[in-house]
Amino acid sequence: MNYQTIYQQSIKDPKAFWMQQAASLNWFVEPKTLTTTDENEYTQWFPDGKLNMSYLCIDQHIKSGFGDQTAIVYDSPVSDQRQEISFHQLKEKVARLAGGLRDLGIKSGDTAVIYMPMIPEAIYSMLACARIGVIHSVVFGGFAPKELAIRIDDCQPKVVLTASNGIEVNKKIAYQPLVDQAISLASHSIEKVILFDREQEIDVRFDDQCVDFNSLIAQSRPLDAMPVLSTHPLYILYTSGTTGTPKGIIRDTGGYATALKYSMQHIYDVEPGECFWAASDVGWVVGHSYIAYGPLLNRNTTILFEGKPIRTPDASTFWRIIEENEVKSMFTAPTAIRAIKKEDPNGDFIKKYDLSSLRYLFLAGERCDQATLEWTGEQLQIPVIDHWWQTESGWPILANSAGVELLPIKTGSAGVSVCGYEVTILREDGSPAADNEEGLVCIKLPLPPGTLMNLWRNPKRFQAGYLDRFPGYYFSGDGGFKDADGYVYITGRVDDIINVAGHRLSTAEMEEIVAAHPLVAECAVFGVKDDLKGELPLGMVVLKNDAVNAEELEKELIQKVREEIGAVAAFKKVIPVMRLPKTRSGKILRKLLRSIANEDEYQIPSTIDDPMIAAEIEAEVKKRSMVKD
Ligand code: COA
Ligand code: AMP
């Protein structure tokens, strides 16, 4: 069947389409109803169905005779380990950990935070929570204690699951002090911490509050998967919003499982038994959907990679892993490819490996520049597919659905609407944009299964942030345009969110930290172009007086952002300026600042209060470029 036919079916008769997809799952109670609405009138999928994600990811495969198949390949160049974990072994760990959680009094509907590096125990923890209806919230290991504390206060977990340490290339990062600090910063009290000791010579402390992961598993009885309603939240995943407070995206169970199963086969084109690799982190949505749940429920071997595309040990790592595991379909961020291309421009490493298993490389998480896409296609001689989605959607919105029909690739476009999504470009006034006219990327409601149910304890923010702007549509926060063939081109965020190395970060949050410094009178933080990471945050500050040592202040501000958000923010540059450009009503003109800092051509908006400021800023930027870079 071709893409157009199946896409039209999904839009014209969603009931038939999604009921058919849902039927490919092993439900405990098959759903009879496609959707209902909750008290806020938001769509809920398969409300009368019952299932369990942990059962779908593990037990069903064992029952069908695939218990010995490798479920997870843990590949960790940073700790010099490689481990193959079968579905049988996965079940043993997950069922026992679920038992351990229950022994600690954690029950269905409770929340648990998982703050772990890229180790199998992170996936065991997610699946153990899912097994007994505990709603997990994984926090990316690169976030600082304050970020962890913010999430703890918002989702109020009974327990935090963590590990002794992470490893950043060759640097060990002890987690227990970070967790301790987060617990003391948070107002909410944690009952227990479960800590997995990696035995890498990092001091760990077990006490009344902190329990040893391994002892807990050893002493507990394995638990069977518990049927939960399709609408039962599987997880909360925090993502950056346009204010300093992150948003807790709530994901359901049944709609998500249906969408993931569909996407594994119809977008990523992998059949059960094949190997799929998403080189991301379990702390991001890509890790949830395509390291953990998607591949496992489709009975794919998934790769859990603890390392970087370069430096662990070099730019050949991705190709080694593909060869060793016969990866069929892979997903990574353009930044990873740019890093590899910089180290190995002629693809010498690529030529050394047998990559014949690899059919597609999917890219997402940030805008992909043409040079990167073309270089990768030339080197690998396979389709390199840019696709677009968000933490909110949980699975791709725009793509080239390789498993349905591989459409011609148009460089610069993230593809066409995936089945179930009606992606529409709207003008500011809500009218539909013409072909090739840039506007705001929106999706006609209702959203398909798998997408966010709501924001945790904040339906008002959900309504205001996504739904109020254009009634009848979900507003993505991205700008873009659509061509006459339905291909959409994403031009970037239209709000204060930036993507640094594929990591979504809020400049508003950084701005709050910078503005809080006693020597800063005013500031703006915004994203500027970066050849490697796509975007990097840049701060511009107006100082309270001339006597301030700008270099010292820059160091302090960098350190502050590192301490409060984490090194992952990559906040490394601050330029002092005399004044910031503003509208007559006092709003800082960030777009103008961004254009000046990027050395793009710019137009001075008619709303500016003093047109001379643009030239002043330009001079400051040039001065700084000459002195420092
Ligand atoms: N725990 C602790 N610190 C972390 C961390 C973690 N889980 N992840 C990143 N960091 C730190 C890094 O050590 C680095 O610290 P530094 O400033 O002291 O060097 C900082 O955060 C930035 O990390 P990163 O973005 O990984 O940059 P890098 O310079 O170390 O490596 C790349 C550059 C290109 C190799 C890397 O950015 C990369 O692999 N990018 C692709 C990312 C990706 O796949 N994103 C997709 C998400 S869907
Ligand atoms: P996240 O929620 O972390 O997945 O980030 C989602 C945001 O990343 C989107 O709203 C986009 O701004 C950006 N993004 C993701 N994929 C792409 C892509 N293929 N092209 C351009 N931007 C992308």
Produce a short descriptive summary.
The protein is an alpha/beta fold. The strands form ten sheets. It has a seven-stranded mixed β-sheet with strand order 5-4-17-16-18-19-20, with helices on both faces.
Q: What does this protein structure show overall?
A:
- With 629 residues, the chain is α/β, with parallel strands linked by helices.
- The protein has 2 domains: 3-307 and 387-480, Rossmann fold, CATH 3.40.50; 501-628, 2-Layer Sandwich (GMP Synthetase, Chain A, domain 3), CATH 3.30.300.
- 33% of the residues lie in helices and 24% in strands.
- The chain is built from 19 helices and 32 strands.
- Strands 5-4-17-16-18-19-20 form a 7-stranded mixed sheet, with helices on both faces. Strands 7-6-8-11-12 form a 5-stranded parallel sheet, with helices on both faces.
- Strand 9 (165-168) and strand 10 form a beta hairpin.
- Helix 4 (87-103) crosses helix 8 (213-219) and helix 6 (145-155) crosses helix 7 (176-185).
- The longest helix is centred in the N-terminal third of the chain and has 17 residues, at 87-103.
- The radius of gyration is 24 Å and the shape is globular.
- Coenzyme A is lined by residues 141-142, 166, 168, 173, 279-280, 284, 286, 308-310, 332-333, 335-336, 339, 365, 501-502, 532, 567-568, 570.
- Adenosine monophosphate binds at residues 239, 285, 364-368, 386-388, 390-391, 414, 476-478, 490, 493, 499, 504.
Spell out the blueprint of helices and strands.
Layout: H1 3-12, H2 14-22, E1 35-37, E2 43-45, E3 50-51, H3 53-63, E4 70-76, E5 81-86, H4 87-103, E6 111-115, H5 120-131, E7 135-138, H6 145-155, E8 159-163, E9 165-168, E10 171-174, H7 176-185, E11 192-196, E12 210-212, H8 213-219, E13 228-229, E14 235-239, E15 247-251, H9 254-266, E16 275-278, H10 285-297, E17 301-305, H11 317-325, E18 327-332, H12 334-343, H13 348-352, E19 360-363, H14 370-380, E20 384-386, E21 398-399, E22 416-417, E23 423-426, E24 439-444, E25 454-455, H15 459-467, E26 473-482, E27 488-493, E28 497-500, E29 503-506, H16 507-515, E30 520-530, E31 534-543, H17 550-564, E32 574-576, H18 590-597, H19 612-628
Parallel strand pairs: 4-17, 6-7, 6-8, 8-11, 11-12, 16-17, 16-18, 18-19, 19-20, 31-32
Antiparallel strand pairs: 1-2, 3-13, 4-5, 9-10, 14-15, 15-25, 21-22, 23-24, 24-26, 26-27, 28-29, 30-31
Helix pairs in contact: 1-2, 3-4, 3-5, 3-10, 4-5, 4-8, 6-7, 9-10, 12-14, 18-19
The chain binds coenzyme A and adenosine monophosphate (AMP).
